[in-house]
Design goal:
The complex is a heterodimer of chains A (302) and B (521). Chain A is α+β, with helices and mostly antiparallel strands. Chain A contains 8 helices and 11 strands. In chain A, strand 10 and strand 11 form a beta hairpin. Chain B is α+β, with helices and mostly antiparallel strands. Chain B is globular, with a radius of gyration of 29 Å. The chains are: A alpha+beta (302), B alpha+beta (521). Chains A and B meet through helix 1, helix 3, strand 4, strand 5 and strand 6 of A and helix 15 of B. Chain A: It holds the Pfam family CENP-O. Chain A: It is found in: Chromosome, Centromere; Nucleus.
Chain lengths: 302, 521
């Protein structure tokens, strides 16, 4: 009985949250609609002309319109931000470091990288930069925090495009002390970073496509019946960057496919019982140059 | 047993049998619980493992004349692995003592010896049962610049601009490790995937013997070889250029004398150093111009989940504490740009429901009460802002010890010779919103020159030696609770107390841990 009641309460709670969510969505849709905006801004003009219909009952008082207008403005700003985020996929924002002893007053520049994978926006990746350097290089940025996975060479990219300022030594210690400060290039850094992230996700996507084309996901359950030896049983990424794939056949052959940054096939080695099995490799590739071609080929074969 | 034992550089084969009465074997098995023992035994009898863990079975030929022999055998050998599997499954269903199972294994079914493979499986079972039994240190695998001088005299430096992510292939790694790095050490290696975490665990069982046959395991004379044997675990997190090395533990019994124990400690330390030096060499591929080194990342903990969180393949590596809101991938926080609903301020969302409920329950009566309630609420909010989704008591990602050395100058001295408008505070008494005073700035610049500013410390005022050690089951959850209860002022608490840097050993300079500019890269 008690559990019944609990279930009921849980159900109702779930309904409340879903209804609230719907309410939010409807609110924002209504607020962004141009007609609503028009309605909201209209009452400002009519009072100047006294020739309005006497609808004092209908027109909401100013105290109600003001927050609505504010909300509407907020909504519009958000919509614009979303538009930029969706189209440019590389946006910046400002944040504040909550640490009271943070450098530069806790000012943080955030870079947001959107990733579109399988027709869906993933949670964006963030890189948060601050300006910790004193003296002449004080405008130089440095990566403070980030949410990129470890397989993105962020440190290397930061070393290339956001080098730390070379400290200016006092006196004539080294002749090259006047060496030009290395310029930082946030734009190139962000673009290169995004490129790496997108490549990585494309590689992951292509692995999933390969698996699907080879029918690995589907046939898992129906194992055992009719083991044709040429069937692929497993394709998995073998390294952090998903550049190398392990391929396993039903008859025990294993292969390693190495792809380049952009999904071009660099090398494929298949090992059978008696050493290298070149024929199987040729069978799998069929003259393909890119991994996507292999996907297509497998899809037509299967 | 082989007739002749020749010292070689090969590793110990998995099929090598250890006498079940050997102290190391009894210790490894003895510390498992009954349930674990049974599940391990069933794992041994699994078809995949059976070739390396063959039990003592009754042979078919002497079936007839053997009957009377077997009657006085307390643990008659089974006829087939299937029968044995049934026996152990029935034992699993029944209640009984651990001793019963242990005896059955050592005196019955594996009386002819347990293979090293079996011991490795049992040891890993113990690791799964007691996840905090090992202390791990995290290391980063960093790429090195190709050496430019042909003599190889100069120490290679870390390539800060390299884009290579170290790749790791278990069997190649093992082969190189054994042949190039530990040729003098006889060791048994065993790989196993962690059951719940994305980790690959390598168990290295080191024997102090030049032989790789049964000779290595003979308790010749005094128990020399096994006594000095050590077990080291190396964990490789999936998709992350880090690795975790456990502190070597001896398998010697505790009864060993004090002097020997200390000697063993030094030995195990040198073994660890050997590994730390050797692992990057085993990972490197000089022919492909890929060389790596290991860098300590100042994170030592017993908690593997925390290690995977802070050094693993996910998003949370460099976004701890309050920054974890950026890495949070849980439901409703996807932040897709297609969602047109304006998000509220990040901290307000969960508060609405809570606050509403509370207000209905108890309406504060007096002013003081209201103020108090507001303070409590504010403290909670601040805690959530500073810690985000981390540092929760039940999240199982606690570090148990944090050591911090505070190297800041004593605040009064700074206030005297600096311009007095900025109060520079020490821990817990930090100045306003991180404005740096001039003294602080110049200090930072000088320190930048030196990078390791030992002399600098002496030059600048009085720096008391302050060393803080936090100790507990989940240090940062404890600090969070203190903040939530208003004992620590969350707004003025320095950032390193939230654990956002992900280090357990560190030096605080200018109110920030590790380096002078906060962390980052």
């Amino acid at each position: 009985m008690a559990s019944n009641l609990d279930d009921e309460i849980d159900d109702l709670q779930a309904r409340i949250t879903s209804l609230k969510k719907q309410l939010h969505i409807h609110t924002s849709t209504l607020l962004t609609a141009p007609s609503t905006r028009q309605l909201l801004t209209q009452p400002d003009n009519p009072p100047t002309t006294t020739l309005t219909l006497p609808r004092s009952k209908d027109t909401p008082p100013k105290t109600q319109i003001q927050p609505l207008l504010a909300q509407s403005a907020l909504q519009e700003a958000h919509a614009q931000q979303c538009l930029y985020r969706a189209c440019a996929t590389l946006t910046t924002f400002r944040a504040r470091d909550p640490d009271p002893r943070a450098v530069d007053g806790g000012a943080i520049l955030g870079v947001r990288i959107e990733v579109l994978s399988r027709a869906r926006f993933l949670r964006p990746y963030y890189v948060l930069l601050n300006r910790p350097f004193p003296g002449p290089g004080s405008r130089h940025l440095r990566v403070h925090r980030h949410t990129l996975p470890a397989c993105i060479p962020l440190a290397g990219l930061a070393g290339r495009y956001l080098p730390a300022p070379t400290p200016v030594k006092g006196g004539g210690g080294d002749g090259e002390g006047k060496k030009r400060q290395q310029q930082q290039d946030l734009g190139r850094f962000a673009r290169a970073l995004r490129r790496e992230v997108v490549r990585y996700h494309h590689r992951l996507g292509v692995v999933a496509d390969l698996r699907k084309a080879a029918g690995i996901e589907g046939r898992r359950g129906a194992e055992g019946e009719g083991e044709e030896p040429g069937r692929l049983v497993d394709i998995t990424p073998a390294d952090a960057e998903a550049k190398q794939l392990t391929i396993e056949w039903a008859d025990g052959r294993t292969g390693r496919l190495v792809m380049g940054d952009d999904g071009e096939i660099v090398k494929l080695v298949v090992l059978g019982e008696n050493g290298r099995d070149r024929e199987a490799g040729r069978d799998l590739l069929g003259g393909a140059v890119r991994v996507e071609d292999v996907v297509k080929r497998l899809a037509t074969l299967g | 047993m082989a007739r002749i034992s020749v010292p070689t550089t090969a590793r110990l084969p998995s099929s090598l049998r250890v006498d079940p009465t050997n102290p190391a074997a009894t210790k490894i098995l003895g510390r498992l619980s009954r349930a674990s023992l049974l599940s391990v035994a069933l794992d041994w009898l699994d078809d995949n493992n059976l070739p390396l863990a063959l039990p003592y079975l009754r042979e078919d030929e002497d079936e007839d004349d053997d009957d009377d022999d077997e009657t006085d055998d307390f643990h008659p050998p089974a006829r087939s692995p299937e029968a044995l599997r049934e026996i152990y499954t029935s034992l699993q269903a029944r209640k009984g003592s651990k001793r019963e199972v242990l005896d059955r294994i050592t005196e019955g079914d594996w009386r002819h010896g347990l293979t090293l493979y079996q011991l490795a499986m049992a040891d890993l079972q113990y690791l799964h049962d007691h996840p905090t039994s090992q202390q791990w240190s995290a290391y980063r695998i960093a790429p090195l610049k190709p050496p430019h001088d042909p003599d190889g005299e100069a120490a290679p430096e870390v390539d800060k601009q390299s884009l290579t992510i170290p790749r790791f292939h278990p069997s190649t790694f093992l082969r190189t490790l054994q042949s190039h790095v530990l040729p003098d050490v006889k060791a048994h290696y065993n790989f196993d995937a962690h059951r719940s975490l994305p980790l690959l665990i390598l168990r290295i069982f080191v024997l102090d013997s030049p032989y790789n046959t049964n000779h290595a395991l003979q308790p010749t004379g005094t128990t020399t070889s096994f006594d000095a044997s050590r077990t080291v675990y190396i964990a490789f997190p999936d998709a992350s250029p880090h690795l975790f090395i456990s502190k070597p533990t001896t398998t010697t019994t505790l009864s060993s004398s004090g002097g020997r124990a200390s000697g063993g400690g030094g030995e195990s330390k040198s073994l660890r150093n050997l590994l730390v030096e050797g692992i990057p060499k085993a990972l490197s591929r000089p022919l492909q111009r890929e060389r790596f080194t290991l860098q300590s990342t100042s994170l030592v903990t017993r908690n593997l989940a925390e290690l995977v969180e802070r050094r693993g393949g996910g998003r949370t590596n460099s976004a701890g504490g309050g920054w974890s809101v950026y890495a949070d991938e849980t439901k409703g926080k996807k932040e897709t740009p297609l969602d047109l609903v304006v998000p509220g301020p990040p901290l307000s969302l969960p508060d609405h429901g809570e606050g509403g409920g509370k207000r209905a329950a108890a309406v504060p009566v007096s002013d003081a009460e209201r103020r108090e309630e507001r303070a409590v609420k504010r403290a909670r909010l601040v805690a959530r802002a500073r810690f985000g989704g981390t540092g929760l008591v039940g999240d199982g990602k606690g570090v148990e010890r944090v050591d911090v050395v505070v190297e800041d100058a004593f605040p009064d001295v700074v206030a005297e010779d600096g311009d007095g408008d900025d109060e520079e505070g020490v821990v817990g008494r930090a100045g306003r919103a991180g404005r740096k005073s001039r003294v602080d700035g110049s200090l930072g610049r000088d320190a930048e020159d030196e990078d390791e500013d030992a002399q600098e410390a002496a030059a600048q005022g009085w720096r008391p030696f302050v060393r803080l050690t936090f100790h507990g089951s989940h240090v940062f959850a404890g600090i969070r609770q203190l903040v939530e209860n208003g004992i620590i002022d969350g707004e003025r608490m320095p950032g390193w107390m939230t654990g956002e840097e992900g280090v357990t050993i560190g030096a605080v300079r200018n109110g920030r841990i590790r380096g002078h500019k906060g962390s980052g890269l």
